[in-house]
């Protein structure tokens, strides 16, 4: 019997009851704007920031309108401006180079390895140039974390500021340190498909008072920054408040209300995602023609999606894998397609950037297949998905029709 999967790859779990109740409270009192508080009230957004800072072990946190906005704010806060060049991953999603472009700066792409992480040799080479960029926007794309000890040694030696894009690594760790705690600032997304769901939303953390004071004013605090519970002391704002533009992108209390109980449950959810990931990984291991991404012992990932490689496969065969899996209810995304589709995207899709060809990176990108693993999937669902992929890949690889 040919097995089929009938689940929905984009169906997230419902918002926890506690979040729905808190959201209803906000709707009933009507004070949705984060600075609109009653006498003695602390806004839900300020509480969220306080809780997120504590969860990440960061001194400061700021909640904003989206992950992309959080990244752009971090870039502005560290001083990136029009014409500046910013290093970033060739394997990432469109909002990442988009955030760089939004501040008038220019992305400089760094290659990807078969481990799906930034190519540190390529990074070192790019940093050896006399006019090397001074900022790296490091995207932990699809939750794959590079050797952060080596990366920080390279960037520290070159005097490069690192901003971490943790849209896919909220709750993950490298060598015991939470993702987002290596760079000067780290940005997270709370858009529906991430590790916490408020529809749209973003979070920014830092230990640096000047960077965070700038970020808070940039986000649209007016002179109400003293209503933040996870912001730097007043003197940090005194240094920046008249010279930092307001580029509004605040989070509102409704989203914060929805997020707080989800974040309180983050680490439990991480374990549930990883259990699903490991079932798919086990089911796909030792499939001829298919390469599993081996994860280093120092990496404690949080995988709400799964990637594997069909390295050096002909385009037609990969397309057949995607089509046959789709026929059996399994949605795979391919990063090698000539045209970007859905959310998939890669460096040569962003034609506003004059990027040189990267053949080694192209080879990896052309082999990447990607699927979501929402928490609405059971472990049995994941085992079935793996069996279907394995069967399709095997038949095509062995040319058994
Ligand atoms: C790797 C990565 N970085 C940043 C973002 C931006 O997040 P948002 O959609 O909240 O702007 C996304 C969103 O898909 C992403 O996948």
TrEMBL record:
Q: Which Pfam families match?
A: DegT_DnrJ_EryC1
Q: Which PANTHER family match?
A: DTDP-4-AMINO-4,6-DIDEOXYGALACTOSE TRANSAMINASE, TRANSAMINASE
InterPro entries to which the protein is assigned, alphabetical: DegT/StrS_aminotransferase, PyrdxlP-dep_Trfase, PyrdxlP-dep_Trfase_major
Is the keyword Acyltransferase assigned to this protein? no
Q: Does the keyword Iron apply?
A: no
The family line of this record is: Belongs to the DegT/DnrJ/EryC1 family.
State the organism's lineage. Bacteria, Pseudomonadati, Pseudomonadota, Alphaproteobacteria, Rhodobacterales
Q: Which residues cross the membrane?
A: none
Give GO terms: molecular function aspect only.
transaminase activity
State the UniProt keywords alphabetically: Aminotransferase, Pyridoxal phosphate, Transferase
Q: What is the name listed in the Swiss-Prot or TrEMBL entry for this protein?
A: Aminotransferase DegT
